[in-house]
Specification:
This protein is mostly helical. The chain is built from five helices and no strands.
């Protein structure tokens, strides 16, 4: 019985956590990931002054990720690319 209660509680925590993630928090978290990771090597103005399409942002983020001291995970690179693509997109 205790095991079932614990599993139910764990499932509820996971469910609630995923609900929070889909309620507008990712944009804030994405910005935080961008600021934390990208500012370790250069000023943020370098990225925020550029306007690129998603493919260009992906190439830039992948190039930065490959640098020796970047410490950017694949998931963080995806988050950063999506954030930059949406926030600093090239006007058509």
């Amino acid at each position: 019985m205790k095991k079932l209660w614990f599993l139910s509680l764990a499932a509820m925590v996971i469910f609630l956590t995923s609900g929070i993630a889909s309620s507008g928090e990712p944009a804030k978290n994405a910005k935080e990931v961008f600021e934390k990771r990208c500012s370790t090597c250069h000023g943020l103005g370098r990225a925020t002054s550029a306007k690129k399409d998603p493919d260009e942002w992906n190439k830039t983020v992948q190039r930065m990720k490959a640098k020796k001291n970047a410490n950017i995970t694949d998931e963080e690179a995806k988050i950063i690319t999506e954030y930059l693509s949406e926030t600093y997109k090239k006007e058509k």
